[in-house]
Amino acid sequence: FTSFKNWKSFFTSFKNWKSFFTSFKNWKSFFTSFKNWKSFFTSLKNWKSFFTSFKNWKSFFTSFKNWKSFFTSFKNWKSFFTFKNWKSFFTSFKNWKSFFTSFKNWKSFFTSFKNWKSFFTSFKNWKSFFTSFKNWKSFFTSFKNWKSFFTSFKNWKSFFTSFKNWKSFFTSFKNWKSFFTSFKNWKSFFTSFKNWKSFFTSFKNWKSFFTSFKNWKSFFTSFKNWKSFFTSFKNWKSFFTSFKNWKSFFTSFKNWKSFFTSFKNWKSFFTSFKNWKSFFTSFKNWKSFFTSFKNWKSFFTSFKNWKSFFTSFKNWKSFFTSFKNWKSFFTSFKNWKSFFTSFKNWKSFFTSFKNWKSFFTSFKNWKSFFTSFKNWKSFFTSFKNWKSFFTSFKNWKSFFTSLKNWKSFFTSFKNWKSFFTSFKNWKSFFTSFKNWKSFFTSFKNWKSFFTSFKNWKSFFTSFKNWKSFFTSFKNWKSFFTSFKNWKSFFTSFKNWKSFFTSFKNWKSFFTSFKNWKSFFTLTTRINLYSEITIFK
Q1: What residues contact residue 231 under an 8 Å CB cut-off, 6+ apart?
Q2: Between vectors from CA 245 to CA 260 and to CA 147, what angle results, nearest 5°?
Q3: How far is CA 23 from the centre of its chain?
Q4: How far apart are CA 216 and CA 263, in angstroms?
Q5: Torsion of Cα atoms, 479 then 484 then 486 then 489, to 10°
């Protein structure tokens, strides 16, 4: 090789590849005899001259068709990967366009190449490979035929069973920025890649993948083109039908902290992701999802940026119009205890979530919600931190101004029995809820409330625990000082007949209500005369 430098003259003169490959068939004898790759690569250093001279890839690939014989014969990958000079190779090889335009027969290539195990066991030097290969732009601009690639490559099982060294791969591959800046053709990629079933059935080693992949920061800083991604990826149905192994996924993925610290661009994400309908229509397996996802503690401890999330997510209308399967959701989600024990940061949540108007305008299907959500017992047994909730939730004004559809709410919510049987902790509730002033100042629409709430019978039949209620509710002072709008209350509340017909349990009421002193001391302090004048 030191002596032979005139590659240009060689390749310009040698054009008849067809005759060469048609005649040369004995690859087995060739590779069995030729074992000294080390000496070959150590000697062949002038890649620049080689690739500058060799331009006729079209003739080469048109002529070379017998991949089967080639791969059956070539087994010594270990000796081959003694090749370490990737830097010189990639610096010299720049003509990807000619290469991919010429190489079209992927089917023959993948049908013939089956020995992935030997390939990956031998190829360990990812660091040198990625440090040397920097020209992603030229690669992706040239490689456009994804359809042929994925149609031909079907043996995912062999690929993933063989490729186990994720750690070396991710430690070496750091240049995400160059990768994503160069790879823009998501449309062609997803249109071509349809076989999710084979992919997920074969790829089972999530543990190794996530243990190795730690550099989320670099990934998200580099990947900014969510719009192109979601516009191109439409086949959610195939994706979710194929991906069933949530258990393995969540057991392996534990580093939520790194994920959320790195992923900050919610605005771009939600602006781009608009097809909720397709997503929810396709994703039906909530049971498997919630049974597998148990680590709420790690999730909420890591996810702190509610402000960015809610500022970015504005399209509640599309979300609720698309998400209709509440029944499946609540039947599957049973672990309220873990959820509430983990989620403690109510302050950040309510400070960030201000757009109640958009939420209630969009969420209209109360009927489906309450028909599906029946497990009040589990909910209230798990949710104990009322103090944190009420200390954080201060914006009653926005809440009540937005929630106007009481009719739909009460028509849908009929299961008072389950609600009151489950909710027993009045003490914690009243000890925590102190801001009556904000509540009554904000809630002015009594007319809509009473016009909508007609089912007193169900309410009183279900609510029997007066003792617990009055023993817990002691702060009459705050209540009466805050509740001043009696006029609106009595003008709106006209259905006394229904009230008294339904409320029959006076015995329980008076046996439980003993604190008359506190009641009258406070009612006398306020203008009791004005209240009596109103109540005629």
Answers
A1: 186, 187, 272
A2: 85
A3: 56
A4: 8
A5: -70
Asked if 122 contacts 81 with a C-beta cutoff of 8 angstroms, the reply is yes
- What whole-number distance in Å separates Cα of residue 444 and Cα of residue 438? 11
| Radius of gyration in angstroms for the set of CA atoms belonging to the chain, rounded to a whole number | 35
- Which three-class secondary structure state does DSSP give residue 197? helix
pLDDT tens for 119-154 read: 888 887 778 788 888 878 878 888 887 887 888 888
The alpha-helical segments, DSSP class H, found in 235-295 are: 236-242, 246-252, 256-262, 266-272, 276-282, 286-292
Give tens-digit pLDDT for 255-264: 788 888 888 8
Could you give the CA distance from residue 328 to residue 86 in angstroms, rounded to a whole number?
53
Residue position matching structure tokens 């039947």: 331
DSSP 8-state assignment for residue 81: T
d(CA 19, CA 10): 16
Query: Which residue reads 């039908």 in tokens?
Result: 241
Helices (H), 443-515: 446-452, 456-462, 466-472, 476-482, 486-492, 496-502, 506-512
Token digits of residue 324: 């209709």
Burial label for 438, CB within 10 Å (0-12, 13-18, 19+), is middle
Structure tokens at 206: 């999530």
Inter-residue contact 503 to 460 (CB < 8 Å): yes
